[in-house]
């Protein structure tokens, strides 16, 4: 139970992501008190705590769970730690926000979702792109029938961080589970099913390793995961999706990435593009219209008070000032309501990711996806 309608939060992980996304939103939330943080490096964890005025600093997760007075925890650590940290937190009766992918595999994700349901925990998986104005507007257009019945969706996530050959745990299968499939395709799997309101029935995947990466810091070799992936997803309605994610695309933008989206239906088409600099644009074309593709400006009510000039500012404002993701999770805990996307959503995505990994290992064979 929360105390005086305040949610006492602990965070596992003190990375730049925690510092940039989680703490600013929590710091400004009227119901949140960050009372503890835990990191592997004591000096770095203490510096993180000093920055955000966090009273409890830990290097042992069990110590934090046992001695800190918590209502909820954020698991913002490497993928191999998601399951043990989350299960320990749920066993302690805490609400949990866990980074994506939810687990290393479906078995872990199923156990996490089941435990959360059993304990009544309010959970969140930060599938961030659901909350961006461009995508919210596309979902509204689809829901209002702009394209009619969706026939196929084409989504591309291009970025260039994979050109760096330095060791990164994100490309180490033992720690990450998968590479770009888990890191980036998880976003696109969730976004596609959310935009067209459909459920996956099968997937095939083609992956490639284009960059020879350095060994682990201790010099040992490892099983290197993919740095580019293309998924073909079949949906229950008969629609299909082409979801491409790659970390080896030179896009020439300040942030080094771009997003592209098209949804074709039996009555029209939506085009959306974000260059992570100045472009957050939606266009459309209806069957029978003579004027061709037309701009579909994102409405002011979707923008609200967030900045729209630079995409980075939009992203920061969405997660630091609105009730999206972490802030929405805190609001849900304070109000005793479930949050979305939660562990059930994370599990649904994990089923597709696991099937994609199997498909990629078997020359792109079509793999069925079972949903409970």
Coarse morphology: globular
Could you name the CATH class of the largest domain?
Alpha Beta
Q: What is the number of helical segments per DSSP (H or I, 4+ residues)? A: 12
Report how far the terminal alpha carbons are from each other: 30 Å
What is the overall pLDDT average? Answer: 96
> Helices and strands, in N-to-C order?
EHEHEHEHEHEHEHHEEEEEEEHHHHE
What is the strand tally?
Answer: 15
Report Rg: 21 Å
Strand order of the largest sheet: 14-13-12-11-7-10-9-8-15
The assigned CATH architecture of the largest domain is 2-Layer Sandwich
The CATH topology annotation of the largest domain reads as Dihydrodipicolinate Reductase, domain 2
Q: Main beta sheet, described?
A: 9 strands, mixed
Write a compact overview of the structure shown.
The protein has helices at 16-27, 42-52, 61-67, 79-91, 106-119, 133-143, 173-176, 180-196, 300-303, 311-321, 326-335, 343-361, and strands at 7-12, 32-38, 56-58, 72-75, 95-98, 123-124, 150-159, 200-208, 228-235, 240-246, 257-265, 268-274, 280-286, 294-295, 367-368. By secondary structure, the protein is of the alpha/beta class.
């Amino acid at each position: 139970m929360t105390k005086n309608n305040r949610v006492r939060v602990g965070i596992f992980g003190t990375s730049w992501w925690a510092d940039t996304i989680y703490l600013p939103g929590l710091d400004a939330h009227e119901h949140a008190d960050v009372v503890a943080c835990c990191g592997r490096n004591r000096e770095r964890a203490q510096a993180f705590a000093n920055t955000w005025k966090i009273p409890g600093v830990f290097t042992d997760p069990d110590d934090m769970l046992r001695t800190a007075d918590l209502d909820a925890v954020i698991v913002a650590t490497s993928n191999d730690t998601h399951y043990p940290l989350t299960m320990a937190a749920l066993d302690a009766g805490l609400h949990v926000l866990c980074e994506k992918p939810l687990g290393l595999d479906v078995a872990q994700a199923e156990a996490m979702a089941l435990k959360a349901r059993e304990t009544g925990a309010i959970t969140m998986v930060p599938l961030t792109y659901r909350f961006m104005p461009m995508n919210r507007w596309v979902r509204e257009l689809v829901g209002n029938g702009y394209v009619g019945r969706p026939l196929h969706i084409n989504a591309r996530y291009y970025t260039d961080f994979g050109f760096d050959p330095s060791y990164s745990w994100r490309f180490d299968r033992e720690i990450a589970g998968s590479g770009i499939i888990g890191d980036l395709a998880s976003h696109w799997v969730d976004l596609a099913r959310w935009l067209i309101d459909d459920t996956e029935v099968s997937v095939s995947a083609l992956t490639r390793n284009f960059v020879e990466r350095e060994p682990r810091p201790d010099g040992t070799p490892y099983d290197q995961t993919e740095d580019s992936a293309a998924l073909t997803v079949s949906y229950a309605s008969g629609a299909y999706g082409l979801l491409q994610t790659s970390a080896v695309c030179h896009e020439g933008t300040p942030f080094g990435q771009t997003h592209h989206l098209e949804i074709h239906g039996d009555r029209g088409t939506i085009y959306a593009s974000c260059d992570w600099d100045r472009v957050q644009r939606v266009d459309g074309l209806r069957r029978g219209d003579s004027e061709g593709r037309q701009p579909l400006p994102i409405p002011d009510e979707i923008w609200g008070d967030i900045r729209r000039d630079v995409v980075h500012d939009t992203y920061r404002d969405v997660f630091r000032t609105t009730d999206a993701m972490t802030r929405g999770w805190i609001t849900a805990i304070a109000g005793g309501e479930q949050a979305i996307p939660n562990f059930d959503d994370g599990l649904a995505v994990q089923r597709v990711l696991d099937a994609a990994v199997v498909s990629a290992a078997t020359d792109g064979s079509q793999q069925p996806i079972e949903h409970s």
